[in-house]
Design brief:
CATH superfamily: Tetratricopeptide repeat domain
CATH topology: Serine Threonine Protein Phosphatase 5, Tetratricopeptide repeat
Radius of gyration: 16 Å
Strand content: under 5%
Shape: globular
Largest sheet: none
Number of strands: 0
Distance between the termini: 52 Å
Order of helices and strands: HHHHHHH
Structural class: mainly alpha
CATH class: Mainly Alpha
Length: 132
């Protein structure tokens, strides 16, 4: 039992540390330091951090600090969306709505927007309201 508590404590500490780094990436992004954001997010994204994966997807979608590459953006958004991150689900839905890196598909867009809205992500709910 004691070993399980230690393992839980280590897991919690690591998740807090990963979140702090992901937040550092967002801070860099917000300041226009896209290379800095990528440097923070890349190792976390490679280890499966959904927020960092979504951040990297945004960099590629907008061509911020990296060449614009919708295929890369979709790949990163999909990794985060499949983990249930509503912001990434919204980004993926938006890509399907516009046809950025994927075949334009209103039904796929609606599906991703619904997943995000179900989790209370307001931009997705607004998009659904606008589309209906």
């Amino acid at each position: 039992m004691r070993l399980r508590q230690i393992g839980l404590g280590v897991t919690l500490a690591l998740s807090i540390a990963f979140q702090a780094h992901a937040d550092d990436g967002q801070t860099a992004y917000d300041k226009g330091d896209y290379a800095g954001a990528l440097a923070y997010w890349q190792p976390l994204a490679d280890r499966g951090d959904a927020a960092s994966q979504d951040g990297i997807g945004s960099l590629y979608a907008l061509g911020k600090g990296v060449p614009q590459d919708y295929a890369q953006a979709i790949a990163w958004f999909a990794k985060a969306a499949d983990q249930g991150l509503p912001k990434a689900q919204f980004h993926l839905g938006f890509a399907y709505l516009r046809g950025d890196g994927v075949t334009r598909d209103r039904n796929m867009a609606l599906g991703w927007f619904r997943k995000a809205a179900t989790q209370g992500y307001q931009p997705a709910q607004s998009m659904l309201d606008h589309m209906n």
